[in-house]
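Fluoride-specific ion channel FluC, Dechloromonas agitata. Tokens?
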Amino acid sequence: MSVLHLLSPLNFLAVGLGAAFGAWARWLLGLALNPLFIALPLGTLAANLLGGYLVGVAVGVFHLNTHFPLAWKLFAITGFLGGLTTFSTFSAEVVERLLAGQAALAIGLATVHLAGSLLATYLGLLTVGATRIWG
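Tokens:
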């Protein structure tokens, strides 16, 4: 089967709309949360932890419901959650701390993002009872 069938207008629309909504959500989280604690950009952290949790839920839901249309999965995971979560902003914030001589804060920030996102994804899978989908 060719991948060309995946390049349908509906799939492009699903990814694009999802990405727009995800990016808007990330932007709003930053506006609301980043001013609360300047040393730690809480909006970026919230976007990554929420996205990690929601991707676990989504992977579980789509695995347990294989009849759902591909466009829904593309909208939710590739589009919305891809737009919501942000490795580039996280990377810039960690490097900014390193360049400011705040190595401990940078390492802590990187650890919280990575470990927190992995834990959140697992909790998302637990939420929908889909922790045994790979074996």
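The first helix runs from residue 9 to 33.
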